[in-house]
Specification:
Number of strands: 23
Distance between the termini: 6 Å
Radius of gyration: 23 Å
Shape: elongated
Helix content: under 10%
Strand content: over 45%
Order of helices and strands: EEEEEEEEEEEEEEEEEEEEEEE
């Protein structure tokens, strides 16, 4: 398949190109104490802000064992659950070795007769607000969360929108890579390595074929490109510029293509791939945004 990125307008910067395979299995992300089983409490007990859980519990956050005075339903995993009472919170650092799309799953329930909502944030940025449906545990799945590589702070915090004493229970929190990344050489446009603050039209050694206003820019170049979200270089598509390369797919299936994009100041554009998919409206800012996923079906052959 020939992957082509082109620009029909004035200027755009792209970074971190992924081809994502829907059919591949999810890979588990290691998350210490996903079931809040530490520290192990006495039967029918709960404890506010216990130490040794691996989580930083603030306010009236607690861990409760089955049969506690909170009336928490039986834990769907293990025998203990997290309690988010009022505006309390629980947070911990999580290491992501690889950038990409992730899926977050958890099970939650209301305290009987309560109306609690809690939010999930990553490095302070809200990912989702969850209002458990009732006093029995139900599963929530959040998909297509783009997370750069590195260590990030995952936080769950009660918002208590109706005031009063309201609590929610959380258990079995899992983070999975979603989906498997199909390797694309030089997907972050880090080769060739440019000197500081420079850019180059149609550089050699990138593995991409550039045309017209296509090129690579390093952070702080004359293009004023936003700092690269991965590495220190980005693709630039100026006016009708383009970049393309061949990508070999080992098996047929439905694939998705994702990337991060940002405008040069006051400019707008669209991207297209192989003449058949087009992303509109996802990059109208000088800040990096994850563009919507592009779906296409590839059959049992590879075109070069």
């Amino acid at each position: 398949m020939i992957t082509k990125l082109s620009n029909g307008s004035r200027g755009i910067c792209l970074s971190i190109l992924y081809v994502l395979v829907n059919a591949m299995p999810l890979a588990g992300q290691t998350l210490a104490s996903p079931g809040f089983e530490e520290p192990s409490l006495a039967a029918n007990a709960f404890q506010y802000r216990p130490t040794g859980s691996g989580w930083s519990l603030l306010g009236s956050a607690a861990i409760a064992r089955n049969g506690s005075a909170f009336g928490n339903p039986t834990a769907p995993e293990g025998s203990q659950v997290l309690v988010l009472q009022g505006s309390s919170s629980a947070e911990r650092p999580v290491c992501f070795p690889w950038p990409g799309l992730y899926q977050l799953k958890l099970k939650s329930a209301q305290r009987n007769g309560n109306r609690q909502t809690f939010k999930i944030t990553l490095d302070g940025t809200p990912v989702s607000y969850i209002t458990p449906a009732g006093s029995s545990f139900t599963e929530t799945t959040l998909t297509d969360i783009y997370i750069p590589s590195g260590t990030h702070i995952l936080k769950l915090q009660g918002t208590n929108p109706f005031g009063g004493d309201n609590s929610a229970f959380v258990d079995n929190l899992m983070i999975c890579k979603n989906p498997t990344v199909q390797q694309i050489a030089n997907s972050g446009f880090e080769a060739p390595s440019l000197t500081a603050d420079t850019f180059a039209y149609r550089p050699e050694g990138a593995g991409w074929t550039f045309a017209s206003g296509g090129g690579i820019a390093r952070n702080c170049s004359a293009f004023d490109n936003a700092t690269a979200p991965e590495g220190s270089q980005v693709l630039i598509l100026q006016n009708g510029g383009s970049a393309q390369r061949s990508v070999r797919f080992s098996s047929p299936g439905t694939y998705r293509i994702g990337l991060k994009a940002a405008q040069r100041l006051t400019q707008s554009s669209e991207c297209e791939g192989d003449g058949e998919w087009r992303g509109g409206g996802c990059h109208h800012s000088v800040q990096w945004e994850f563009c919507g996923l592009y779906h296409r079906r590839l059959y049992g052959y590879c075109r070069r």
